Amino acid sequence: MNKLPDEKAILAAAGRIKRHINDTPVLTSRNLDELSGANLYFKCENFQKAGAFKSRGAVNTVFLLSKDELANGVCTHSSGNHAAALSRAAALRGTKAYIVMPENSSKVKIEAVNYYGGEITFCKPNLESRELTLNQVQQNTSALEVHPYNDYRIIAGQATAALELIKSVIPLDVIMAPVGGGGLLSGTALSTFYFSSETKVIAAEPKGADDAYRSFISESFVPSENPNTIADGLLTSLGTLTFPIILDHVDTILTVGEESIIKAMKLIWERMKIIIEPSSAVPFAAVLENKNIFAGKKTGIIISGGNVDLDKLPWIKK
Question: The pTM is what?
């Protein structure tokens, strides 16, 4: 797929991945509604295969590839959730996944890649090292690169989460997603535009990694440089494909502080009794910090994933 996903492409992706992913539940919490002043609907991708929304895009992409394209396997660089999702998707097609991961990736995400059969090559925790190492892996294996977000096939797959949410709760005033590279957000924005055009899309991002916010405000690409946040899934720069979609179809991007992220994450653990990772808490943190924007509004929040290292919870002081 080399063009912007349209309605047909997103519906086709939903059909293609249906047997291989979970149609995740939409949960509510009267307690969190009262705390926020909004009517919240949480689309729980923490219950997705491989523990995150990334399975949608990975499965859609890998199942669009021919046997010849898969002959030498697939490869990517990822700090975790895409790595595990691609490893699983490759296994479903009977091919190999070669994964470049930063050496400081969380233990739980490394274990997930190993479980799904991905072959890990570790690198230094910076973009230059990730790209150089991936280039070397490709030279050695001739594997086909599957980018974590800058791929229309990935975007179409990620769009299916919002599609399911829209079908479950009609009508929504707002749909929220966190933003890192923009795969989930751009897919969410497209599904909302096609299937619920009256609904606003609001993104949320950590203040310590606010390159998407600065890019959005200036309408000019700002790279992610030295991001500092516990939301480890939101450290990457926007892509050349995701950024224009976000500019065209996202209403605004809100930024939140680290303490707000921790508070929101802890509240969801305590009140909803579900495990989410820090990146997933960012949109709810934005609701709590901006109650005036969401007051009384039916707000869908995509909980992006639940892969968290239980030995390194952010509210436990060592």
Answer: 0.96
